[in-house]
Request: fold
Amino acid sequence: MKQMHPARFVLATTAALTLALVARSAAWGASHTAGWNMTTSARYLDTRLDWWSKWPKAARDHGTRCVSCHTSLPAVIARPALRTALGNAGPTANEQVMYADVVKRVRMWREVDPFYPDQTIGIPKSSESRGVESVLNALFLATRDRDAGTSLSDDARLAFANMWALQMKAGDLKGGFAWLTFKLEPWESETASYWGASLAAVAVDRAPGNYAASPEIAANLTALRAYLKTGLGSKSSLFTRMLVLWADSHLHDIVEPAQRQVLLYQLRAIQSADGGWSLARLSTWQRVDGTVIPDASDGFATAIITVALQDAGVPATDPSIKAARGWLVAHQDPATGRLPASSINKLREPSTDPYLFMSDAATGFAMLALADK
Reply:
């Protein structure tokens, strides 16, 4: 069968998508974001930071705590909206505790143990832990400095130096970072290294003082872009390719224009009739307990895809964005402020600690998706 020229494929798929959106717009209606309660969602995330700081499993050496992609990161991602909603001029008390831990571990980088040492967990968990922590530390402190309106602090520069020192120089991860693999999707798995590389791109973009243009990191950025490009291959899941699209919005020169159009089409094409997105449609994930990942729209999938599309330049007036933001508003829990989301790994019991992890992530990304641009 003769393959269609890429440019013609883009035109054809874009036209098909346009017709589909026109047909779907009547069902979506006039979606808006006025009903989302930023105050309750901000309080939810702040409360979760407090819980995380006291959870025994988060404790690490030297009186510090590890940071997490599911609970700490969402609060940082939503930082501007979090501050505005709570009426704080600066970080909340719980954020200050989190940042203090990060700063302490950055300054004691050679003294603190990895989050998961080889000696107690097994090889190669030390290097994986260092990769995760170095990227998150840089992102957290870059965000803190930017939102404080200051220049890049010495601690943030040190965090970036730690991160770049761990950038892989050979092998399949060349240009990326070693990442924790516990067979837990989507943040601690074999493909989660693209999640980490995307966060590194966001960290560089968030760093104040045009850090991204610093000559001393030019080679690092070239290598990071090259690694992220490998995530666009046909074997990569749509979730991974969506992350690369998001990273391109912050680092640029990763996704070609034709690839961008195809990705936008593919993401819009799997949007549900209710305006949300399903986790099950983003990859071939399998739960370890044999239960089926619901095909219904999910809080985390909808929130992060909405962020990725908006950062990629899709305007708020676009029917798919209007519908997605409307879905987020409609599904916020009015009592707690959280956005419910499902685990990819197993059917979680509400009484267990990990039950809220996906909701933590969903709520933070939803706040970012719905914040004034």
About this structure: The mean pLDDT is 91. DSSP finds 15 helices and no strands in the chain. The CA atoms of residues 248 and 254 lie 5 Å apart.
